[in-house]
Amino acid sequence: MTSSKTASSLAANVIKLSDPEKELLDQVDVFIFDCDGVIWRGDSLIDGIPETLAKLRAAGKKMFFVTNNSTKSRAGYKKKFDGLGLNDVPAEEIFSSSFAAAAYLEQTKFKDTGKKVYIIGEVGICEELDLIDVPYIGGPADSNKQPDMGSGGMLEVDEDVGAVVVGFDRNVNYYKIQYAQLCINEHDAQFIATNLDAVTHLTDAQEWAGNGSMVGAIKGCTGQEPLVVGKPSPLMIDYLENKYGMDRSRICMVGDRLDTDVLFGTDNGLKSLLVLSGVTSEEKLLSPENSITPDFYADTINDFFAAAPAPKEA
């Protein structure tokens, strides 16, 4: 456990971005952006984002958008970017934890086992598994099901389920939880979590319980820890590095969460920058109790470019 003295000294070393060109832009070739709390909040684009992204592209910076939200596939997120006016973001730059789950199953040749996946989650996971031809059950199809809990009632499960993938599910219910625990406890299915985010931005008005609550339910009834494929797991940065041959020392992870985004950067040899436009306040960042510290922090990514000086009065 980090002592308060150590945590305090760590927090004191965090630098608020003041000279972005020297401190950041000259040192970074690739920016990896979280989405919720960085690019948008809920379904509302954060002011100034299109202009900032355009400036980064004009400066020759490569960008990726990596979200722990599994409710959409990469194609689904492309539609969201387009709907918010960010039409110049191609699908190839977008990576969701639903994609990460599918990528993990593909890398481990899950399809060759002949097994199925049971999904707690939404359409994003289903669409990504469809793309790699991995069979699955559950997900939205089980949203209105109720188990028989009468005398002698039992829930029969498919013995061919070899993995349970738990992603954010706004229609999670007792049927899904019971089905998942039986697959894991009685049939040794692998327990995979897209992410462990405690809260999320469903709207821009308040924080909402995140996938950590769904994963926690399955951890509680199985006594098992999941394999996590989203941030801060290295799976997505390993994928990007292998695909694009990037130098990690020239990559900066930009996010609004300490325990996922910043940790993803610090644990995987990247630079890290926390923005205060999402769930983390400056007070929390600089608190003596906080032991996770980025290299830099800023109010928003718009601070990457200094504001033009005000014109002098005639």
UniProtKB/TrEMBL annotation:
Q: Does the keyword Nuclease apply?
A: no
Cite the Pfam families for this sequence: Hydrolase_6, Hydrolase_like
Q: How is the cofactor bound?
A: Divalent metal ions. Mg(2+) is the most effective.
Q: Which cofactor does it need?
A: Mg(2+)
Q: Is Magnesium one of the keywords?
A: yes
What is one GO cellular-component annotation here? cytoplasm
Q: Sorted alphabetically, which keywords does the UniProt record give?
A: Hydrolase, Magnesium, Metal-binding
SUPFAM superfamilies for the chain: HAD-like
- Provide the binding site for substrate: 231
Query: Which Gene Ontology MF annotations are present?
Result: metal ion binding; phosphatase activity
Q: Which residues form the active site?
A: 34, 36
UniProt binding sites for Mg(2+): 34, 36, 256
NCBIfam families named in the record: HAD-SF-IIA, PGP_euk
Q: Which protein is depicted?
A: 2-phosphoglycolate phosphatase
Specify the taxonomic lineage.
Answer: Eukaryota, Sar, Stramenopiles, Ochrophyta, Bacillariophyta
